[in-house]
């Protein structure tokens, strides 16, 4: 029972109650003119395990039927309906943010902010046994869903709490419908992924551009792209914090302004946005988190899925100003303003509807199978079926995990004893390289061949087909760069490895091409033009392999290239057996592909320096009984080795002469990972 409930709050009277355990997750939302998807929206939050929904009806008269339907379906434990009445508005006046917001209560966003603060106060003040006593609170609109990671809602929040997280900002994905629908939660399964997660490859750029050229303002997302958040409710607030309100000033970030200092020093603010985006967002105080159980969570936004809804929205908003809160917030040139202007241009309802329909179809929809397939391949769009599947089955239906967990990745680093046993396994010199005419001249059939080998064995060795003079020049340039090289180190989970461990045992000196200004068009006039050209050839191969990898059984997408690396092993140098990316690289899309091009003209095979690649033929790497053999490639000029950076064990044997190689790594992920 809810004790002392004020008169402007109605409660559920139906049977369906919350399904939560342990941690209680709440949601506050300000609603108006909710549509037929409202019950599905509520049901989604119930089946994924939310504890209580604090619903605020902005114009209760226009939603009477929806409120009645929801009340009779859901129990008072699960929902409460606060109505915008004089009593509620009076309560707003006691909120901490009232003086700031009182001039702007005509603005819907302002009323949302006051309602959020009000709900947060209810949750903080509620006695422990009350249904309103939630541990975390989200703010979401009725066209937004929170999608937990495959591990589930409870596991996600337990992980946040274990890490002392008090505020989590989630990236949002935007619906890309195939057609007009009033049931987007079951009908839409394609979503644009956040721009920062689109591959930094030509294919990814084509995807971004495909969307940008569809609107006047050249936006990728039609609406907001700065995410939504959940905040932890401080139960000690009454005793320890003098009854302070949380009262946030942004509907996206629910942090209490007074607590910012503490959030910063305690590193309590987490986000799924990648680190490199935080400065543009003025959020450098947040910690970018890449644990799967955090990054797997997202907000799904369904803002424009039917022309009639769009018409309703702009009919209600009318000629809204692009400047809000007395100039503090400016709505940038966007689809939102384009839709407003299109609406205002016409008087007749049918014409307005027709125009908005055309606008929507042009800007937001993927209308043909070809369009869908091509955007899936650029990686701008992913398939997320979990919502539809869960709603149809009536229970949370987690998507399958698409990649091994970090734990099983770590398991693949064989122990010292296993390594000793493996070292005794057979070694076969690789005499014949694939693509005998050279990859440069025959890149299409050559890369097809390379891909077959990556699929079947995890590695390939081929001949680049470079003129000996070019190789000679590349070697000379590499030798001249030696003074700029530094000792190589091994980084595991973002920490330099203890050099006494076997994996840290590497005898190379390295330099990174871009870091040294040796990469890109301008570098063609620099001190190492041949190496610059070769680095760009390797990058091109990676980009050409991207689509092939996506379509292969490996289902990998290249998302980014790393900085090319020039390495030199001095006489006696070696690099003991290792996997390049054995721990996920501490990022969402760690390295998946390694390329090594050797530069050693007239290499004397008796000087050693072979690259030995382990190929398991019975069991998997990391299994105590794994059996297999080593395949040995000589570091001869023009030989290119490709291997899966995240699973192939390889080693550089001692070289008795100076040995040079140019390496390139590519990051990537499973093609469906963005959707998980
Ligand atoms: O130079 C080679 O043959 C391979 C080098 C290597 O394995 C590495 O740098 O990770
Ligand atoms: Fe390596």
Automatic annotation (TrEMBL):
**Cofactor(s) for this UniProt protein:** L-ascorbate
Q: Which InterPro entries match?
A: HIF_prolyl_hydroxylases, Oxoglu/Fe-dep_dioxygenase_dom, Pro_4_hyd_alph, Pro_4_hyd_alph_FE2OG_OXY
The protein depicted here goes by the name Procollagen-proline 3-dioxygenase
Keyword line: Dioxygenase, Iron, Metal-binding, Oxidoreductase, Vitamin C
Keyword Iron, does the record have it?
yes
- One Pfam family linked to the record: 2OG-FeII_Oxy_3
Gene3D superfamilies assigned to the protein according to its UniProt record, in alphabetical order = q2cbj1_9rhob like domain
Question: GO molecular function terms here?
Answer: ferrous iron binding; L-ascorbic acid binding; peptidyl-proline dioxygenase activity
In this chain the Fe2OG dioxygenase domain maps to: 558-668
Q: Which GO terms describe its biological process?
A: cellular response to hypoxia
């Amino acid at each position: 029972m809810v004790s002392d409930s004020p008169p402007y709050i109605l409660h559920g009277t139906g049977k369906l109650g919350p399904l939560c355990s342990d941690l209680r997750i709440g949601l506050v939302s300000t609603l108006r003119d909710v549509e037929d998807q409202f019950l599905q929206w509520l049901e989604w939050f119930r089946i994924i395990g939310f504890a209580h929904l604090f619903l605020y009806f902005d114009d209760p008269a226009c939603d009477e039927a929806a409120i009645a339907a929801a009340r009779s379906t859901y129990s008072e434990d699960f929902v409460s309906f606060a109505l915008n009445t004089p009593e509620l508005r009076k309560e707003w006046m006691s909120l901490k943010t009232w003086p700031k917001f009182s001039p702007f209560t005509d603005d819907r966003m302002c009323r949302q902010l006051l309602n959020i603060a009000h709900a947060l106060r209810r949750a903080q003040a509620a006695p422990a046994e009350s249904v309103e006593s939630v541990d975390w609170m989200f703010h979401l609109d009725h066209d937004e869903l929170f999608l937990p990671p495959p591990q589930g809602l409870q596991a996600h929040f337990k992980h946040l709490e274990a890490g002392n997280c008090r505020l989590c900002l989630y990236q949002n994905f935007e619906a890309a419908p195939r057609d007009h629908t009033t049931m987007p939660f079951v009908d839409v399964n394609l979503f644009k992924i956040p721009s920062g997660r689109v591959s930094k490859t030509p294919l990814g750029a084509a995807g971004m551009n495909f969307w940008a050229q569809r609107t006047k303002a050249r936006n990728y997302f039609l609406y907001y792209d700065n995410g939504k958040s959940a905040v932890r409710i401080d139960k000690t607030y009454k005793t320890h914090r003098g009854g302070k309100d949380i009262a946030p000033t942004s509907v996206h970030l629910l942090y209490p302004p007074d607590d910012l200092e503490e959030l910063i020093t305690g590193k309590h603010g987490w986000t799924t946005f990648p680190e490199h985006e935080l400065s543009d967002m003025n959020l450098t105080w947040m910690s970018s988190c890449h644990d799967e159980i955090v990054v797997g969570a997202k907000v799904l936004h369904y803002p424009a899925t039917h022309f009639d809804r769009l018409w309703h929205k702009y009919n209600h908003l009318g000629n809204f100003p692009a400047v809000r809160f007395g100039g503090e917030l400016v709505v940038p040139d966007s689809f939102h303003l384009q839709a407003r202007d299109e609406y205002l241009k016409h008087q007749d309802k049918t014409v307005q509807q027709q125009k908005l329909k055309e606008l929507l179809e042009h800007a937001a929809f993927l209308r043909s199978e070809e369009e869908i397939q091509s955007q899936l391949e650029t990686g701008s769009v992913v398939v997320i079926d979990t919502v539809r599947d869960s709603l149809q089955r009536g229970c949370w239906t987690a998507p399958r995990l698409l990649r091994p967990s970090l734990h099983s990745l770590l398991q693949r680093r064989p122990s010292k004893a296993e390594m000793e046993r493996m070292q005794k396994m057979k070694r076969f010199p690789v005499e014949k390289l694939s693509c005998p005419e050279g990859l440069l001249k025959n890149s299409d059939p050559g890369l097809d061949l390379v891909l077959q080998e990556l699929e079947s064995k995890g590695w390939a060795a081929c001949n680049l087909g470079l003129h000996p003079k070019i190789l000679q020049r590349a070697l000379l340039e590499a030798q001249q760069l030696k003074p700029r090289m530094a000792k190589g180190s091994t980084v595991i989970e973002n920490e330099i490895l203890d050099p006494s461990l076997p994996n840290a045992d590497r005898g190379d000196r390295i330099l990174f091409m871009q870091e040294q200004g040796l990469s890109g068009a301008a570098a063609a006039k620099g001190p190492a033009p041949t190496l610059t050209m070769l680095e760009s050839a390797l990058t091109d191969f990676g980009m050409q392999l991207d689509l092939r990898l996506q379509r292969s059984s490996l289902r990998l997408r290249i998302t980014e290239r790393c900085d090319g690396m020039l390495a030199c092993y001095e006489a006696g140098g070696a690099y003991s057996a290792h996997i390049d990316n054995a721990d996920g690289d501490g990022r969402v899309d760690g390295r998946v592909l390694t390329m090594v091009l050797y530069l050693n003209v007239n290499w004397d095979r008796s000087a050693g320096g072979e690259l030995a690649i382990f190929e398991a033929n019975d069991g998997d790497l990391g299994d105590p009984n794994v059996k297999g053999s080593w395949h040995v490639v000589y570091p001869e000029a023009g030989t290119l080795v490709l291997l899966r950076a995240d699973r192939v064990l390889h080693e550089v044997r001692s070289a008795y002469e100076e040995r040079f190689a140019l390496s390139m790594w590519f990051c990537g992920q499973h093609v469906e990972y963005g959707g998980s």
